[in-house]
Amino acid sequence: MDDDIVIVCALRTPITRARKGAFKDTFPEEILAGVLKGVLTKTGINPALVDDIQIGNVLPPGGGATVARMAALYAGYPETTSISTVNRQCSSGLQAVHYIAASIANGTIDIGIGGGVESMTHGYGPLAMPTGYSDKVNSLPAAADCLLPMGITSENVAKQFNVTRQKQDEFSVLSHQKAAKARQNGWFKDEIVPLTVNVLDKDEKPVTVTVKEDDGIRGDTTLQSLSKLKPAFAKDGTTHAGNASQVSDGAAAVLLMKRKKAKELGLPVLAKFVSFAVAGVAPKIMGIGEIDIY
Predict the structure, then answer these.
(1) CATH superfamily placement of domain 5-139+189-228+245-293
(2) N or C terminus: fewer CB in 10 A for the chain?
């Protein structure tokens, strides 16, 4: 149908390890600008046709419309392209895509980009936390549970739903094997935008490098190697450095419009946006929450 909301381009930067990877000395606005520029290069679309950009982000200082606007302008989008940001924690980027799709569906805009950026190098840890919280609000246990670290909620989920360490480690090994195979076969190549950045070496001297691949994939991971790792969040826990997600730096962008507009511009249809749903869960088991786009 001509009024279908479709995705015509979906790109991301390489995902690198925070504080250790190739983006450790790169600010989030530069990472985001790289992928936003990649959309223009990949599609050849006139940037003035992009009505709105919505960026998902959790951590300061990578968040806020100011940083996103800086990135968009640097990437070549005109001042007439508006910007906003959204924080739905781990689903922030997906929420941004939904907002763009909804805006296209209701006729508010014709073309938009939904995306996300995080620099856990620059924003993760104490920098991301307020200086204090209301004792009155925190007297409600559920409200206090909102402050639980993800590692602890992971342990809560594992205990409540009987997700053993063995199951987690097996999944981790399979995940790394699949990712390593995908990288080896070049299956990520079309979705990754290489970025050229400066990285400080061990002597604090800048070295220019072009980042083309994810650096957190460990294809040699085995159950035996994981069995040697100690729990990271609880002495009797099941979550450790080998089966938990790494802290990362990176960005992604998705270009959406109606099918008839894609035909008009001669752009390929990669997927159709059909529906979207969210649901709240208890904060102490936030790990079972998810966001679905169909």
Answers:
(1) Thiolase/Chalcone synthase (3.40.47.10)
(2) N
